[in-house]
Design a protein that fits this description.
The structure holds two protein chains of two kinds. Chain A is of the alpha+beta class. Chain A has four helices and six strands, in the order αααββββββα. Helix content of chain B is 78%, strand content 0%. Chain B is globular. Classes of the chains: A alpha+beta, B mainly alpha.
Chain lengths: 150, 245
């Protein structure tokens, strides 16, 4: 290779590597801000701020959803299988919201450690399958509750 | 090997070669898109959780995948342009940018349309979605930067630097769902091990991804040819070709 081109090649490679390192370091430094939500374990450990709005993410504990008879109020527990946080929400829930499914709730923690949510989003997983396959899987190997991380 | 690369750099040779390629690629792309869309939208089964709304995956994922791959095409052309100063690389880079921008926009818009019924929100400032938005701005930046310069050689050099610096974003987009807590789900198609999407839904998806790759190649080639015609409008080889046709 011509020495000038070789020099340019080194320059271009350096540019790509150095800019990647720079942006990688920035992303690493800001990792707490890039995370969309706090898992319940972090909230219980006091890592989440209590004086401003936060997002909490995890799985809806099976059997924990309690709906009000007359209002849109719903309470449920969110878990990451290490700790659980109660959520209170008044409003319409997304279609995919269900027990044992992922959820991201936005709101503020009250004095009792309950998240008073202003928005609840359903977080679905990467699994896609036809209903028949899902039914067959459900019949055979329903996963034991609370054994695996999402 | 080197002779092909030298030939690729020659506008008359490339014009003729791409003409043949386009004639083949056009029917292939259209058939792949039709078969893939028919298979995905009508034949594939509905999802056990999302019902029929998941079918937007057959547009969303191919557009996003090719938007990411297209960026590497643009950045690689930028590197070639910087190192070897080949005009054809400048043209490739300029031609890929608007196509990539459109694909990224399609991925973002279909993602928002999909997000509303499934997540409950049009838009969330989640790592995947935000980094994808940055990709959109990078593509637009290259388009705008090229327009901003009167001197096209200087424009190509600036665009090459911008697209090369931007390559760091591609692995970030790809791994964002694994590195950080995000609302967007992790990848369903896995290169190693079993995919998290049933094969009856996976095959049409792979076909659509292939179709979108062809569509990208086709649009970029047509874009390059249009550029070549304009740049060489006074050249004898083009006049000869136009007269002979």
């Amino acid at each position: 290779m011509h020495p000038i081109r070789k020099q340019r090649l080194i320059l271009v490679s350096l540019m790509v590597v150095l800019s990647s390192v720079a942006i990688g370091l920035v992303a690493f430094a800001l990792r707490d801000n890039i995370n969309l939500f706090y898992p319940p374990a972090d909230v219980m450990a006091g890592k989440a701020p209590t004086d401003r709005t936060i997002r909490l993410g995890g799985m809806v504990v099976k059997g924990s959803i309690e709906r009000s008879e007359t209002e849109l109020d719903t309470t449920f527990w969110v878990t990451d299988y290490e700790a659980s946080v109660a959520v209170r929400y008044s409003g319409i829930l997304p279609d995919l919201f269900a027990e044992g499914e992922g959820v991201v709730a936005e709101g503020m923690l009250d004095a009792s450690g309950t998240l008073v949510a202003t928005q609840v989003l359903a977080k679905h997983d990467e699994n896609y399958m036809p209903p028949e396959v899902a039914a067959a899987l459900e019949g055979k190997t329903a996963p034991a509750e609370g054994t695996a991380l999402p | 090997m080197w002779s092909i690369i030298h030939k690729m750099g020659s506008p008359p040779w490339f014009f003729r070669f791409s003409g043949t390629l386009v004639r083949w690629l056009l029917p292939v792309t259209i058939s792949l898109l039709l078969v893939g869309a028919f298979w995905g939208l009508l034949v594939a089964p509905p999802d056990f959780r999302q019902g029929n709304s998941y079918r937007i995956i057959y547009i969303h994922v191919p557009a996003a995948v090719v938007a990411l791959a297209g960026y590497y095409v643009m950045a690689l052309a930028g590197a070639v342009s910087l190192i070897w100063r080949i005009k054809m690389a400048d043209i490739t880079m300029r031609a890929a940018a608007p196509v990539g921008a459109v694909l990224t926009a399609i991925a973002l818009v279909t993602g928002a349309i999909w997000g509303k019924p499934t997540w409950g929100a049009w838009w969330v400032w989640d790592a995947r979605i935000t980094s994808m938005l940055i990709l959109f701005f990078l593509y637009l930046g290259v388009v705008a930067l090229f327009q901003a310069y009167e001197n096209k050689t200087a424009a190509a050099r600036a665009c090459a630097v911008l697209s090369l610096v931007g390559t760091v974003n591609i692995p970030i987009i790809y791994k964002s769902v694994d590195w950080w807590y995000s609302l967007h789900q992790p990848a369903s198609i896995k290169f190693t091990g079993e995919s998290a999407i049933d094969s009856s839904m996976l095959y049409p998806l792979l076909l659509m991804i292939l179709a979108f790759y062809c569509l990208f190649a086709l649009t970029v080639l047509l874009n390059m040819r249009a550029d070549l015609v304009w740049a060489h409008r006074e050249s004898s080889w083009l006049k000869q070709l136009a007269g002979g046709a």
